[in-house]
Each structure stands twice: as structure tokens, then as C-alpha cells.
Design brief:
This protein is of the alpha/beta class and 492 residues long. The chain is 32% helix and 22% strand. The chain binds nicotinamide-adenine-dinucleotide.
Length: 492
């Protein structure tokens, strides 16, 4: 008897249970070999008072199986409920989000008949760290964290995906013309890793033009790799272009656990009607089978599904009189796919997973070793909540702060929302109550001089506090291997 791999299944909320049952039925009829451990996550768990939405038995099941097949979950309205997806991705290190998008012209109506692209989205970093603060009456901030190990492994994942799937080009989207350090690092890592894959074409686009092109000329892309937030937005845009959010599945790959799900939500507006399209979750199931090495079953299911779409047997979300032949509910769609198992599409290109085409395995992050870089403290950006009854005059702030600078530190610049307002600010610049005041060791020109000790900053904070200023945060300024590790902050 063959040993069946176990998978953890979450049936989800809204349309979730219906499309999960439908997908499991098709996968099993297609020859998939797995044993299901069903666990609960989501609305019911939240409403039992567990604010993470995930209970211990679910974590234990995931540890046992390493594979999560998840239907969409409803996040209850109101505060206090965490996103289950963000919790799963971060806790389990599901760093690579892979979203293939393909158009099924002329069988599903789309303005973009030739789309066949894959978005590889970094899944753990960027603005999703959730480190947010209110710092003054007027100003809130969130931290954007981009790391070298995180960027390296997602970019390498994208190139490995391209190589294994015979894709010709990998494009990188960033906004490194503005975020020169964070997005700049992502772009730099992309250029470095591209050298290891000489057979693959590469290009970089600024996210604004990249997203515009993805929305208007998606056929010019093959694989696109992006930091988290851009990937979140652009992957929904490209999925929508091909006709319905109900058609696309995604994989979230980690070292020990991988998760497979549809890209859409729990569609409460059609829950219980039995009309939801199970295709997105089914396509995620196909990716899951490929991941598990069950390529024959994956291929059989995928081709039968393509033929069903080609035969015009469509659920309501993609039904169009000119392209469809039969309007079906979820149950009849399942029957139609199962009847076609073993057959191939005649007009759409059939898929083949026989030659080891697969989702690359997750790789451990490369840690930068201790002492790899020479790091020197050369100053501090001191953030103040400041205004007086006379107003917000940066020249007065500059004058007061120059008096508190001590030792080797001197005040070199004040910015407001990143725009330099002292010295020599422009009188028309709008100033909030949030000021970034740069103190650095005395050097030549605008660059800092010699390294300082932490004590210099402690002394500065003491002086600032005694002078009655409300400092809300500090950010130390470091030189790494002789190069400034901070933006020069001229409000460019
Ligand atoms: P949604 O994706 O559920 O629905 C958007 C629209 O698409 C609706 O009109 C819906 O009827 C339609 N639609 C979605 N999937 C469909 C399918 N398979 N077949 C036919 N039509 C389909 O987005 P929403 O309404 O913004 O979110 C509803 C809930 O889902 C929210 O609680 C949200 O937090 C949650 N959500 C969960 C996930 C997830 O678990 N991965 C992802 C997104 C949203």
C-alpha cells in the first residue's frame, strides 16, 4: 500500500467550505494521494476569543504535515483581529508568494488575451512589519524594513522559478529612485543574483511605470519579483486582468511549511448559494500537488480543468453569452471537470509537469556574519515633537538646539517630513509638529567626522531633555565600511 502524505486543510468561511469540498473532490478523482487533517482557523476561532484566529491543534497539525491547503477566511469587522495570513506567513517563514496569472482567451473574456506571467512577492518584510507609532499630535509612522537575507532569498527564488519553468525573463519592480537605501538594496541584490543566471533576461522598472505596464501591457512580462507591498497590489491587478479573481491560486513557500490558497476572499455576498467558482482554490491545489511531487495527478487535473473552461462550462463569475456554453453551479462544475480527467485541452496550451517542472524548495536565509562590516557611530537623528505658542519657526528651533549640542556633536540640519527647513529653509514649506534634527560628529562639509561613543548621544539627550524638548525617537547614524549608512536627507 502506498503511503499517503498528510495535508492540513482549513475549510474557511463564506464560500470556503463549498469550494474546498469541490477542490478536494476533483484532486482525489484526479489521482492525488493525501490524507486530510481538517483544522479550524478564522471567524469561529476569533469569535471564541482567540485573537490570532489559530489554535494549538492547528499549529501541531502544520508541524506534522508541512502542507497547508487553505480556503479563504473572513476577518471579522472591528479592531483586535489579526490577519491570519500575515500571522501564518511570519510565524512559519512563508517568504515566497508565487502567483501565476494566465488568460484563457477566447474562453474567458479579457482585454489581454496573451497574459502568462508569474508574480513572486516577498512575503515577510517591507511595510508589513506592523511596527507603527503615533509620535505627535499630527504625525504617525510605519517602519519599512528590507533586509539583505530576505531580499537575497526571494530574488533567488524568482530566478530558480524562472529556470525550472523555462521562463525567459525576470523583471524587478522597486521605487529605488526615492527609497535609495531600502528599495535600493532590493535592486542591488537583484542585479547581483542575476549574474548567476546568465541564460535569463533581466530588467528593472520603477514600480509606478512597472505597475502601469502590468495593467496595460501584461503580455510583456514573464516573472516579476517585488518587495511585499508592491507585490500585494500588482498581483491583484494582474489577476483581475485575466477575467476573474476566482481563477487564480497562489503558493506561499517556506522551509518547513508551505501554504496553498486561492487569491480571493470568502465572498460573503455569494456564500451559501452554491455558485462560487472553485477554480482558484483548485489551481492552488494543483500547485500543492506539484510541490508534493505528485506531478501526474497535477497534470491530469490541470488539463481537465483547462478543457472544462475551453468547453465553455462556466460558473457565473466568468459566464458570458459569447464565450460560454453552459452556466453551472459549483457542483456541476466539479462534475464537468471530473468527467474530463484524462483529456487535454484542444485550443488552450496543455500543461506538462512531467519533466520535473516544480516549485523551487525554500532555502535558508544567508546570515551576514558577525564583524563582516566595519561599523562606526558618527551621529544621531533626533526626532522632536515641537511647536511654541508663536508657531513653528525652524530658525528658532535651530538656534535653541545649537545651544544644547555638546562635545563632538554639532547640529547640521533640521528637516520636516524629510524636507530641509534649517539652515536656509524656504519660508513656504509647510511644517508639522514633527522635526528630524541631525547631529553629527564634526567633519568636513556635510559629511560626519570621526567615530563617537554612545555616551555622546546619551549626553545630548540629557541636554535636550533639560532644555525642555520632547524627544520622541532617535535614529543613530552609522558609517559602514567608510560609507554613510543613512540618506543625506536633503528632501530630494
Ligand atoms: P472577495 O475576494 O471575497 O470578493 C470580491 C468579489 O469577488 C465579490 O463580489 C465576490 O463575490 C467575488 N468572488 C470572490 N471569489 C469568488 C469565487 N471564487 N467565485 C465567484 N465570485 C467570487 O473580497 P472581499 O469581499 O473584499 O473580502 C471578503 C472577506 O474575505 C473579508 O473578510 C476579507 O478579509 C476576506 N479575505 C480573505 C482572504 C484569505 O483568506 N486569503 C483574502 C482576501 C480577503
Amino acid at each position: 500500500m502506498t503511503h499517503k502524505q498528510r495535508i492540513t486543510v482549513v475549510r474557511g468561511d463564506g464560500i470556503g467550505p463549498g469550494i474546498m469540498d469541490a477542490s478536494l473532490q476533483i484532486l482525489e478523482a484526479g489521482g492525488a494521494q493525501f490524507e486530510v487533517e481538517t483544522v479550524e482557523m478564522g471567524e469561529k476561532v476569533f469569535l471564541r476569543g482567540n485573537t490570532s484566529g489559530i489554535e494549538d491543534d492547528a499549529w501541531e497539525s502544520l508541524k506534522r504535515t508541512g502542507v497547508l491547503y487553505k480556503a479563504p477566511i473572513t476577518t471579522p469587522q472591528g479592531g483586535g483581529y489579526k490577519s491570519i495570513n500575515v500571522t501564518l506567513r511570519k510565524t512559519l517563514g512563508l517568504y515566497a508568494n508565487v502567483r501565476p496569472t494566465r488568460s484563457y482567451h477566447p474562453f474567458v473574456r479579457t482585454k489581454h488575451p496573451k497574459v502568462d506571467l508569474v508574480i513572486v512577492r516577498e512575503n515577510e518584510e517591507d511595510l508589513y512589519a506592523g511596527i507603527e507609532h503615533r509620535q505627535t499630535s499630527e504625525v504617525y509612522q510605519t517602519l519599512k524594513l528590507i533586509t539583505r537575507p530576505g531580499s537575497e532569498r526571494i530574488v533567488r527564488y524568482a530566478f530558480e522559478y524562472a529556470r525550472r519553468n523555462n521562463r525567459k525573463k525576470v523583471t524587478c519592480f522597486t521605487k529605488d529612485n526615492i527609497m535609495k537605501m531600502t528599495d535600493g538594496l532590493f535592486h542591488k541584490v537583484f542585479d547581483e543574483i542575476a549574474l548567476e543566471y546568465p541564460e535569463i533576461d533581466t530588467e528593472h522598472m520603477i514600480i509606478d511605470i512597472g505597475a502601469a505596464r502590468a495593467a496595460t501591457r501584461p503580455e510583456q512580462f514573464d516573472v516579476i519579483v517585488m518587495p511585499n507591498l508592491y507585490g500585494d497590489v500588482v498581483s491583484d491587478i494582474t489577476a483581475e486582468l485575466t477575467g476573474s479573481v476566482g481563477l487564480a491560486g497562489s503558493a506561499n513557500v517556506g522551509e518547513k511549511v508551505s501554504m496553498f490558497e486561492a487569491i480571493h476572499g470568502s465572498a460573503p455576498d455569494i456564500a451559501g448559494l452554491g455558485i462560487a467558482n472553485p477554480s482558484g482554490l483548485l489551481m492552488a491545489g494543483v500547485m500543492m500537488l506539484v510541490h508534493m511531487g505528485q506531478t501526474e495527478a497535477a497534470e491530469r487535473v490541470h488539463n481537465a480543468w483547462l478543457l472544462t473552461i475551453e468547453d465553455g462550462i462556466h460558473t457565473k463569475d466568468i459566464f458570458q453569452l459569447e464565450n460560454s456554453t453552459t452556466l453551472v453551479n459549483t457542483e456541476k462544475f466539479v462534475r464537468a471537470v471530473i468527467e474530463r480527467l484524462g483529456d487535454f485541452p484542444k485550443k488552450l496550451a496543455p500543461v506538462s509537469y512531467a519533466h520535473g517542472v516544480t516549485l523551487p524548495k525554500a532555502q535558508p536565509a544567508n546570515i551576514v556574519p558577525l564583524g563582516a562590516h566595519q561599523k562606526e557611530l558618527v551621529g544621531v537623528d533626533l526626532f522632536l515633537d515641537w511647536q511654541t505658542i508663536e508657531g513653528r519657526n525652524p530658525d528658532i528651533l535651530g538656534e535653541e538646539l545649537q545651544k544644547v549640542a555638546s562635545g563632538d556633536l554639532e547640529l547640521v540640519m533640521i528637516t520636516n517630513r524629510g524636507q530641509k527647513v534649517w539652515p536656509h529653509g524656504h519660508p513656504d514649506t509647510f511644517c508639522t509638529d514633527h522635526w528630524r534634527c541631525r547631529f553629527q560628529s564634526k567633519g568636513e562639509g556635510s559629511l560626519p567626522g570621526k567615530a563617537i561613543a554612545h555616551e555622546a548621544i546619551v549626553q545630548l539627550l540629557k541636554n535636550v531633555s533639560e532644555a525642555g524638548f520632547d524627544f520622541i525617537k532617535i535614529e543613530n547614524l552609522y558609517r559602514f565600511d567608510g560609507q554613510p549608512g543613512f540618506s543625506l536627507g536633503q528632501g530630494q
